[in-house]
């Protein structure tokens, strides 16, 4: 991962006001933000944009696919992209999430959101750096 490039986050949330609030907090912290209101819209954005570093998705989404489905797709098809799944559900209700997905309880403060995003991105960078050193 290029640590000098501005990190890009895809925010997938069907509630427009929540999506805008999350996007504003992330942009204010220096991230580039893409937004999607459905899983299908998110899949389209993933296909259009080469440099997405993290997908932050809600679980409950309109249409036939939910945030768990999206997390599974990203984990399988784009393993370099970090995943955070946000939900007001109990963690016990999040069965089926891929092991690489991180959980964020809703509602949360902007500070917790930014802390979680930062730590997930740093962990992915460390893992990529270690893999690179091992292959050298």
Written account of the structure:
- The model has no long low-confidence stretch (mean pLDDT 89).
- Strand 3, helix 3 (67-77) and strand 4 (82-87) form a beta-alpha-beta unit.
- Strands 2-1-3-4-5 form a 5-stranded parallel β-sheet, with helices on both faces.
- By secondary structure, it is of the alpha/beta class.
- The protein has 4 helices and 5 strands.
- It has helices at 16-28, 39-48, 67-77, 110-135; strands spanning 8-12, 32-36, 54-58, 82-87, 101-105.
- The chain has one domain: Response regulator (Rossmann fold, 3-Layer(aba) Sandwich).
- It is 44% helix and 19% strand.
- Pfam families: Response_reg (PF00072).
- The modification 4-aspartylphosphate is found at residue 58.
- This is CheY-like chemotaxis protein.
The structure class reads alpha/beta
Element-by-element helix/strand order: EHEHEHEEH
Rg, rounded, reads 14 Å
User: How many β-strand stretches?
Assistant: 5
Our count of helices gives 4
Main beta sheet: 5 strands, parallel
* Helix percentage range: 40-55%
Strand arrangement across the biggest beta sheet: 2-1-3-4-5
- Outline, from the CA principal axes? globular
Modified residues (4-aspartylphosphate): 58
Organism: Aliirhizobium cellulosilyticum
InterPro entries: Bact_response_regulator (IPR050595), CheY-like_superfamily (IPR011006), Sig_transdc_resp-reg_receiver (IPR001789)
Protein name: CheY-like chemotaxis protein
What are the defining features of this structure?
136 residues, Rossmann fold, 5-stranded parallel β-sheet, 4 helices, CheY-like chemotaxis protein, Sig_transdc_resp-reg_receiver, phosphoprotein, CheY-like_superfamily
